[in-house]
Amino acid sequence: MYSDWASLQDEIQFDKANLSVLHKFSDSVGKEVACSVVRHISSNLSLANSTPNPSNLDTHAEVKWTMEVLCYGLSLPLDQLDTIKDCVNVYCEWLSALTSPKLPVPCPITDEPNPYAQDMLHHLLNLFMPRHGAGADLVKRQALLCHRVLRTIESVAKESAMLTRETWETLLKFLLAANNSLLSPPTEKEDTGLSSYDIGDHLCERVLSVLFELWLLACQKCFPSPSLWKTFRKMCIYWRHHEALISQWHRVNHALTARLLKFMFGPDYPELVISEDEGGLLVPSDMTNDCISQSWFRFLHVIQNPVDLAKPELISQTPMFLRLALESEDVIDPRQHECLAKLPQIFYKAMRGVSIMVNAFLGIAQDVKEENMLTSLSLQTPSGRQSIMGPPTPPGQRKAGRPLAAITAPLTQRGSKASSVASSKSTTPAPQCLPGLLSLDSRLPLAPNRPKCNSILHLFGPWLFDASLANVKILPGHKNAGQTHRRTNSLIDHSRPTSLAIDMSPEKTAHCDNSYEQGRAEACGTLCRLFCAHKTGEEILPAYYSRFYFALCYGLQTKENMSGPVLSNILFNSCDLLRVDLAGVQILVPHVLNALELVLQDLTPKFRLCEQIPSVELRKACVHLLLSMLCLPLHFKDLEIKDILAGEAIAEHSVSFISLKPRITELLLNALQIETDSTNTQMLLGGLMLLVQDMALCEEAEQTTVQPPQDDTDHTVHADVSEESIASNISTDSSYTESSYHRLHTTSHDNDSAYGLFGHATSLVCTRLMASWRAELSTAIAAMELLSGLAKVKISPPNLLMCKRTVKWICDFIVNQCSRPTLYHSRDLHSMIVAAFKCLTLWLVEHSRLLYDKECLHNVLEVVELGISGSKSQKKSSDTELVSLRLEKDAKSVYMQNKASDPPKFKGDKVFQPASMRVKDAAEAVLTCIVDQVGAFPPPCGPESLFSLLDEKSLLKYAKGTGLPEQGSPFRYFVLDNSIIVGLLEQPLGNYEDPLPTVTALIRGPFGRHAWTMQLRHSPRLPNKLSSSKSLLADPGRPVPMDNLGVKHGVKHKHFPDSVDKVPHTLADKSIPSLDTLVTDVKTQSELDKLKRQIEHQTQFETNISRRSQLEASRRPFPNPATECKAPKLCQEFQTARLFLSHYGFLSLEALREPSNSSVPPALLMLDTSNTGLFAEVEQLDMVPCRDSDTVHVFYVKAGQKMPQDIVANVSSRKSVQPQFLQFLHSLGWPVDIGKHAGWTGHVASSWKIMDQDDVSDEDYPRGTGGSVYDGRQQVLYWADVMSEVAFVVPSTETYNRYLADPQGDKSPQFNKRGASGSVTLTKPRSLTLESLDKLRPDRESTGEGPLMRSRRGRQPLMVGPDTKVFVVWLESFEDHENFPIGDLLGATCTGLDHYTTSSSVALPRQPEKDVFIIFIHALQNGLFRIHLHGQTGKLTMAIPLVNGMVVSRRCLGNLVRQTAINICKRKRLESELYQPPHVRRKVKIQEIVKNYHMKMDAPDFYTALFHDVAKE
After folding, report:
1. What separation in angstroms does the CA of 600 have from each of 428, 624, 632, 684, 942?
2. Are 1289 and 1194 in contact (CB under 8 A)?
3. φ, ψ for residue 50, nearest 5 deg
4. Which of 130, 480, 925, 1425 has the greatest number of C-beta atoms within 10 Å?
5. pLDDT for position 1110
6. Which of 355, 392, 8, 383 is nearest to 174 (CA)?
7. How much is the pLDDT for 1393?
8. Which are the contacts of 1488, defined by CB distance < 8 A and separation ≥ 6?
């Protein structure tokens, strides 16, 4: 640096100005003269007398002679300490001439103080000379005198305004000489106590501090010459075995760095906080910026390369060390001196100071006092532990603890305004822990305007690179590596080796010395933080890349030459290593993977860690690295990775990315198997979802089909449509005892396919869920989110056996949680159960064939029953009790399953005691989904709506009789069980021609709106026209009689059988006389004969008539028109509403009777259709969906953009966005037209209805946009499943300008499409097109405002819970996530849900910025995408599958973003106490309608109303 300037070292060391003329005489003479003269002079000092007299030294000669005596007195032995003290007092008094002269100061000195002051400084140097053989007490008293001299000189330098350049140079030379005399000898201790050299120990810290402080002061008042700087730099080499030198060096460096940052980057740059006792006032306040920068750079290099501190052979190559080695019998080699044993600590402290400066330039707010205290704590360890100590806390990563009482605020609370603002954006609070422990979650963000990595590396790179390989055994193949010429600076000394050249000295390559691993670990960690601060598009010199990768390859060694602190520090500080677009960083992947396997596969690593890095935090950092490399194998596939440690000649050391896939998969599964920390577990679960999804999509794209093993029974599980059940293969009672039920016995190669990994993942997650995670809310929710995501993964062929097992596990989890003691029941527990029910719903819908299995169906319905009623219907047998099973080495309690053949307990005999109403509601939703959606989703109208799209308006269009009623409604509205509104239309629809009893029912219940048309018919439809609605009602005629059919028998009818005459008569028979025996006279006989003749005549007559009638009948045509029965005329009028209610069992006297002592209305009641408010309420009921609706707003941010107007304008043109952005948009969902869409559109004003509009052609939509077409005015991107629907809205300039025009408005983004040109105008329609509605709500239709969620004052509000704001932001430059204008864009993302209220008078406040969840996406240069999550902290906000920092592939990006957004909203709803499920909100709304429009009537009036016709037109 100063090669063109001469050093003044020899001049200082061999200066004779401190010798007196008395040194020419004997010691006794000089001693006698000095003692007598000095005693006289000191007696007149102001210290000795309160009223001193003026000095009698009037001439220059007198003063010169006296000073010669004083010079000799300062060199006297310590036994003449009083004389020495008097000499010191005299000179200290006389030096006041430079500031405010005192009375005893001689006049010549007062007149010309600078020349005399220079001489006095030369003389005072004698005081700092060590006295050999002095006692400990005398040495201490000598040190006190030295302290006084230093204080006086320091005071004079600061206060005097008359110091000349020569005086300043003399002062600095004096300090250099004093330091050299005290510090250059090696310090040592003797058995008898303190030796003579210990004066250096007493004064080391003080003399160095005065040197650095006054040198810095001289930089402001009289900048030292280059020769002095060179001398200072060279003489420091002799003092490097003192720790105080490094402390003072960093004290000045940090003070100058703090001032340097303020004028280089502005006052808002994160501050390097320096307290007064740590040098906060070292730099004069009026020091110019140019002087600060010049001084900073020179002080930075004043001790030359601090890495030399790790080389005892260099530190000991000084004249004093060599002289001691020649004189001492114990020290043979200077490197063996005992004072060099502190070099590892000194080296570490030097690298800590460099690390603080690097972090300061990166914009990490720090407190130097706290850093130094923690560094000291780490060094104050027993000697036996010093070798395993790691570096203390990197700034900005320490958990908020209080290491000492003197620390007034944690690191994360220090810093400037910018740092405090940045820290407020932190997504995770700093957990409380032991002092000095590291935490990834409490890291402060880097400054957005930080300097480039190249600039920092130019300053500190040579030291950091050398320190990262300090005393490392370099492999022979690298002896000639790293000789590339680097960028040099003209101020750097070219005589030293280049910083990019590897030190291949024999001592370094012969062995690996781990005693310096603390400093080496600090250097490696600093390098990792520095390279991870790489900005988007930033260039770093290839030479720096090569040295960095070379250092990391050696630092990540896991076999020989391994250093635990270095390895752990690298891993902890390299979370962003694989996600910041470092050129060629993939070459480190095999080495990083080796290190990750060493850490993640064992909860207690087998190597030594940094004591400040908890094992949990180290594992978290490793999980971050693992999540960064999950997609690499399938992305780069066969691309080879060269092992730079193996050399070019060994080709077999090259591996490909795809060959790492089994190891990465196995590592992820093993880590998830043993992980105990909740946060780490959730991150691993997100990574597992990414891995399965990416592998499945990759195989689907490549059309790869995996054939499952032949011994697996997956292909038979779903075929249970016959009487045979899967229970014959897997018994319910033994399902828990089968090991295959808990975990699939898959080998490592099974995980190479999506089929095998799917089975392994579901088995592992379900096992851990039951064994370890069931008591941890956030982990259990994350496991359910993973299982929900796995349910949607398309595996070819389907792993149906594992699907059945997963459903069984979920059911068992619910049973286990519900059966826990009452003490453990809490909201968190019920949230887990609710999440499990929702997960179960997705599995049943996505794998509907599971319900063909009788056992699976029985398990599901049994769990649903448990959720609804709180108990199961089946009686428990003696063995159905809680048993303890060991699942994966953890003893947990689970329910034994009951047999399906056990006798059930009837519903009426059970006590209704659900775990909670939330659990009951969730179970009801599962049951309804089984009945309505399983096997039938998506419905014919598409997934946009689970409702029937038919309403009163559309049905009346097709009713017989054109036109709509002017008064009232043709619908009758009945309420069943206070939960279902049935609107009955008794007019047949136009497509029915038969006059049959026809009723059209609009059924509005908690789970949606359904339309049915029913006919009462007694004859079948035509067999050959099954699709026809016409019935066979025409008279078919009588059948033609056919006499030739059948057997005819001539039967003579008798009153008694023929055998009756053969029966012998009894006496009783003879007791009744015959008629003949009763005739006693002629008259009676004649009457009897007459009667017989009449009987015979009548018999003959009837026989003739019968023959004649038979003959006439045979002659008449068939059938006889006069006697034939005729069918009555067809009835044209029916009371179909009455028939419907009666036939379905709703109409009964008991149903019409109100329960006694209860406010519950009767089971059947009629609503008042004459009240026009009913139709408005019904319309509002239709506006309550049966699914959760979420909105995600998507933004595109170009590099450097901060203004919201610029951000929303990016999507106006396809040329303004990256092509991957448009691909990503279309992977989120499918485009839908707002006017034709029946689902959620992102705003309540246009959702859940089909707008009245003409057909719109494709030409009517803008072309060539970058996504602005999906701004919600015409189109949005939409996605839905059976439980959720999501609208993805891309705000445009038009929608943002509309918000600016009316910031307080809450209008739909829909607009009049071509209103100006007279074309089609899109307007908001009505669900019920009754004239009464137009009169009821004129303002609502004209303004387009969304419906209020409270229909009138005082009614029960609908608890919709939080309106979660989720943003997806595409970043061209990743650093722009710090400056994203959340607050400015928040108002333009209104969904209309702000109208929902939490009480009758208090509305939900508009969400603050911290409540907005943002998913930042940044496209890396390698084709992958980096994820950054920002959002409010909370126990339920870490939604997966996306994890902060994850790197995902293009094929699964949209899917994972969508899942994460949905899961975020689900978690917020679970956490909110105001949320009600959609079916509960609909049920509450129905009850409100019943309360307000119930027609109270008794049974006769009700039946009478049934027979009355509704209003006719």
Report:
1. 23, 11, 19, 11, 46
2. yes
3. -75, -25
4. 925
5. 85
6. 8
7. 76
8. 1177, 1351, 1355, 1356
The predicted pLDDT at position 1271 comes to 87
How confident is the model at residue 1193, as a pLDDT? 94
1165 sits in which H/E element: strand 1164-1167
Q: What is the pLDDT of residue 877?
A: 46
For residue 185, cis peptide bond before it (omega within 30 degrees of 0)? no
Q: Are 268 and 417 in contact (CB under 8 A)?
A: yes
Say which residue the tokens 């059911």 belong to: 811
Strands 1188-1197 and 1284-1289: parallel
Alpha-carbon distance of 1354 to 530, in angstroms, equals 61
Q: What angle do CA 390, 392, 395 make, to 5 degrees?
A: 140
One-letter amino acid of 1177? E
Amino acid 154 reads E
CB 435 within 8 A of CB 407: no
> 332: buried, middle or exposed (CB in 10 Å: 19+, 13-18, 0-12)?
exposed
The conformation of residue 340, written as its DSSP 8-state character, comes to G
Q: Identify the burial level of 506 via C-beta atoms within 10 angstroms of its C-beta, where 0-12 means exposed, 13-18 middle and 19 or more buried.
A: exposed
Once rounded to an integer, what is the mean pLDDT over residues 1344-1357? Answer: 39
Contact (CB, 8 A) for 804 and 856 = yes
User: How many alpha carbons lie under 13 Å from residue 428 in its C-beta half-sphere?
Assistant: 18
What CA–CA distance (Å, rounded) separates 1391 from 1486? 24
Tell me the pLDDT tens digit for each residue of 418-473.
333 333 333 333 333 444 566 776 677 888 889 999 999 999 999 999 999 988 88
Q: pLDDT by residue (tens digit) across 324-340?
A: 767 666 656 666 777 78
Q: What φ, ψ does residue 947 adopt, rounded to 5°?
A: -80, 160
DSSP 947-995: S-S--HHHHHHSBSSSS--SSS-SEEEEEETTTEEEEEE-SPBTT--S-
d(CA 136, CA 608): 42
pTM over 0.85: no
d(CA 115, CA 121): 10
In sequence order, the 6+-apart residues with CB closer than 8 A to the CB of 708 are 714, 715, 755, 797, 799
Please give the biggest Cα pair distance in the chain.
210
Cα–Cα dist 600/616, whole Å: 10
**Beta strand segments in 583-668, E:** 640-641, 655-656
Angle at 689 between CA 686 and CA 691, to 5 degrees: 110
Q: Is 644 helix (H, G, I), strand (E, B) or coil?
A: coil
Beta carbons of 473 and 563 less than 8 angstroms apart: no
Q: Which of 1295, 1293, 1309, 1291 lies closest to 1195, judged by CA?
A: 1291
Q: H or E element: which one contains 314?
A: helix 312-315
Q: Look at strands 1284-1289 and 1275-1280 and give their pairing.
A: antiparallel
